[in-house]
Amino acid sequence: MTSLPRRPSMTDVADRAGVSYQTVSRVLNDPHRVKPATRERVQAAIEELGFTRNRAARALRTTRSRIIGVLTDGSSLYGPATTLSAVEAAAHEAGYTTLLASVGPHGASGERTGRELLESGADGIIVIAPHEGMVPALEAIARTTPIVSVTAGAPAIPGATMVTVDQARGARSVVEHLAEAGCRSVVHLQGPPSWFDARGRRAGFVEAVDQLGLDAEITEPGDWSPGSGARIAEALLRGPLPDAVFAANDHMALGLLHVLHARGVRVPEQVAVVGFDDISGAAYFTPSLSTVRQPFDRLGQAAVARLISGLGPAPEEAAPAAAPSGLAADLAPELIVRRSSSLTAPATTDEPPVS
């Protein structure tokens, strides 16, 4: 019977590079202490042999695995899914791998799932908590586990550090833009009330229209889908047209635009439309969609940096770097003005890079 190939060890790397085992260890853990020529020789041996670190052995020595657990509700919706991708990218950039687990749409079994992540070697856990259903999981895990919660309004929970994008600020920027464009009546096509993002966007809308003295209406809740946007738009068109509609996300705005086009309503000449999220393709809606772009890359970086900083130094390791300056716990989104709310905007614009 043919035996399987043996995984190369640090000793194999040392033999190939003609250095000591300790030198290989220094190249892997503290490369700046090794002369460049020696470091290059060791790196070449690592690549030739296909050597990879044994995280289990390292964890036994340092009590750290360099694994970050990520807990989600399994949602494929744009916001949670993009946040997850950003966290994974930031963890990789920081030298960590991620271990993903899902607790289902209502946060069921959150405590057990968190414990399983720790038993699998995670040093700490980032919880993506976009709605009320994840709060029980947050509360359960925070009792015993270092966690950072990526959320837009979950209640303060002892032991949990919150990192978020300021949804209300994004909504206020939309209303201010519409007012500057001459709109005096604005309708908010709201998202599901159990979602913290939807609550923040509604709160920012209400605050801004009150301050600016605009006529305002809030529709029944949608469910983030184009279908719900279209359904609510049909009901909206039974009454007088508002000057503008602010949809809680871009997918609902897409359904709204579809109905307006079918009814012969010109955008933005008769009704201005703004969404939220700046999903891939928003610049190529007809007309191109004004929207609010969330800084997902910085959100992931802030969450990972705060978790690592909160872990403290492990034995035989230097203290972790503090969270980089400029990574606030409450990040600002950016209004992107396109054709759907401005006759002077270009017909199309470049899409943001896909991460």
TrEMBL record:
- Gene Ontology molecular function, alphabetical: DNA-binding transcription factor activity; transcription cis-regulatory region binding
What the entry lists under InterPro entries is as follows: HTH_LacI (IPR000843), LacI/GalR-like_sensor (IPR046335), Lambda_DNA-bd_dom_sf (IPR010982), Peripla_BP_I (IPR028082)
Task: Give the Pfam families listed for this entry.
Answer: LacI, Peripla_BP_3
Q: Where is the HTH lacI-type domain?
A: 8-62
Q: Which UniProt keywords apply?
A: DNA-binding, Transcription, Transcription regulation
Q: Which domain of life is it from?
A: Bacteria
Listed name of the protein: LacI family transcriptional regulator
Protein source organism: Brachybacterium phenoliresistens
Q: Which lineage? A: Bacteria, Bacillati, Actinomycetota, Actinomycetes, Micrococcales
